[in-house]
């Protein structure tokens, strides 16, 4: 029980705190740099897969057409396969957009593959239909391609959220934490997993996705890394996305993402080859594998082991460890109960609630993966009203 306690505690600390601190320390002495060229303006194709987005698609198209990039060097491809609402009709109002539409819906990965067959540019940028992109983002992404070792560049996801919502506040803080960790990974060597809301890659490095792939953004960026290229993180290129409308809607989204994580773990075993991909494998295990596989097990193991040791021993370490966890879960429940109060005093309580919610979603995602119930075609989560001009300067 003592071994279980200390192993679980170490895994949780290292994954969520220690790894980030280690990267910051290493980067302070050995920061990996890449050259940029602010005047580099390659030909770019901007790709947006969309499914039944009639409520937001006009805003997305206008946001896309407002990007600050030479008109002769950028083209736009929207894919609306399977949409049964007015999404395709709205896009047809804009002759600048090349629309791909078919009645069959085969999932986002299949839509991306279809779009890529129409891409002739040297760089392709992907963005989600519900993400409003800052006008300078494409310029900020492509300037890194002056370095021939850079195969892709991810932008930053920002969440426009209700700060008194357990979903909105928790997701917002999570992405602020995740963005800092991605930047530290990028400075160290590479990120492993682009932000699907906005990322780019060299077109020649694209490899067609299997239609069964759930997390296309992760698989595409990981594939670029496995070809020996770095994938950078550029916070100055960002997109704003509204948070999920309810905790139930967010659960659907997190459950799907978690199932995709486990799928990717088995689909890309070469990422674990530390002899061939030393730094990449270290980052992948530290940032992804531990969080996906061991931490969901370590959390209940820590609680059970500390409870047993609390009963069996009088060691103050285990006593304190047990009561700290009791306090944590008490605050989690309290945060959920008081979330509707919408007071500033309750906001800190929303963080432990969102953390526990994420872990529970991982369990659900794993069950959907092993039972094969999570397909690449899913019911999209409802979100709060669009972020609008918050992506503007």
UniProtKB/TrEMBL annotation:
Domain of life, per lineage: Bacteria
Pfam family, one: Glycos_transf_2
Domain Glycosyltransferase 2-like stretches: 46-206
Keywords: Glycosyltransferase, Membrane, Transferase, Transmembrane, Transmembrane helix
TM ranges: 6-30, 289-311, 317-339, 351-371
Positions in coiled-coil regions: none
Any GO molecular function: glycosyltransferase activity
Family membership: Belongs to the glycosyltransferase 2 family.
PANTHER family in the record: POLY-BETA-1,6-N-ACETYL-D-GLUCOSAMINE SYNTHASE
Name this polypeptide is given: Glycosyltransferase family 2 protein
Species of origin: Flavisolibacter ginsenosidimutans
